[in-house]
Protein 1
Amino acid sequence: MSEFVPSTVRPEEIEARSFAIIAEELGEHSFTEEQFSIVQRVIHASADFDLGRSLRFHPQAVEAGIRAIREGRPVVADVQMVQVGISKARIERFGGRVHCLISDPDVAEEARRRGTTRAIVSMRKAARMAEGGIVAIGNAPTALLELIRLVRAGEARPALIVGVPVGFVSAAESKAQLAGLDQPPFITNEGRKGGSPVAVAIVNALSLLAVSEAGAR
């Protein structure tokens, strides 16, 4: 068998070709232009067209996410994998920071004391910090369910919830609960699929839109 030689090794060409393939293979869709730029990033990160098609956007979601980033609001991640993957340079360009509280010693201690998950406790701790910002949940359905509870109780007021946890226990149900909210705006998907790379792709796509919007002014 002959050795495979890639047609290009230039990162920008690889990305451009990937996005062209995604647009062609996805075909007709009902996403807006800005929503589709996020869908493309999610498919690019996962190579999963069904996952891309399953994305659901609150009508104000993209606008809310861009505004939060451009106003320097915080981004709170449910797990460190999401925190690490988010482009800090674009968030920090506008004065924002990316936080993850799940490994804080007080979070771990309270979770042990209460017999609950660190994800739940971290969302309680993050409620005030996340006001007017973005909460990105890609791993823990319990984090998303707790955040929804806090929102309904008036104890959390994020500008945008990115809720795409993956799994077999409560993942699909937590996202269905999120999709039932009128406010705050959300980006989620249907079903069990999701994950930290998906949450990262969504936030990074929003930050690219924020930078693009800033450059256009």
Note: The chain is about 55% helix and 10% strand.
Protein 2
Amino acid sequence: MQHFSIHPGQISRSFWRHRQLIFSLIRQEVLVRYRGSILGLLWSFFNPVFMLLVYTFVFSVVFQARWDQSIGGSKAEFALVLFVGLLLFNLLAECFTRAPSLILQNPSYVKRVVFPLEVLPLVAFGSALFHAGISLLVLLLFSCFVFGLPPMTAFLFPLLLLPLAAIALAGGWLLSSLGVYLRDVAQVVGLLVAAWMFLTPIFYPVSIIPAEYQVWMHLNPLSFLVDQARGLLLFGRVLDWFSFFWLTLASYALAWLAFVWFQKTRRGFADVL
């Protein structure tokens, strides 16, 4: 039996070795999305602005929704709290929904050329991160216009990308591999992502959930990341370093297991495709 071993440093070495290819593919994905449109990349700015206005109107005016009393009840405050949650969720949701088709849409990478297939989930994450960055810019501009400069804790926000990237890569490697062998994975992931949005405290605070269900809510890693992002960007709360450390550690362990799974299963991609 052939011995199969993957060193823990193989992920970082592969990413570093193919860094130019990764950046080139990310740039290509971003440009292709808006190719042929009149406004081009400006759509990446107008889309989050439009959605921010729509969500503000629907939840603040139509549903008369309000957050907890600790941040007041203005529509602008609710819009910002809501938008922070959607920013993080949309980043992960884009990575997860695209993952099952990453290999299926690029059969030539599998059959005809020697290509580092393991970088495709990182390319998807990089493309989603670009649009999340534009949304973050819209958020900060809106916050400055309404409330003034963001708190100093906002400079810690990029740290949240560490576990977020690991979760996105873990999902990308696992789902892209499964998508090759099981074509129904894309439909299942679409349903689960839709449910995930409402099971994450994006449109409501965890405090309104009955106590016996809150423990299940805290098992959702995105719940912690959304809460910490709001604290850093809006409320001036310092990062919960203890929980952040363990979530980051667990996320990278999960990413490593998913990478091992991907590398083992990729040997059968050509046969299936």
Note: The radius of gyration is 20 Å.
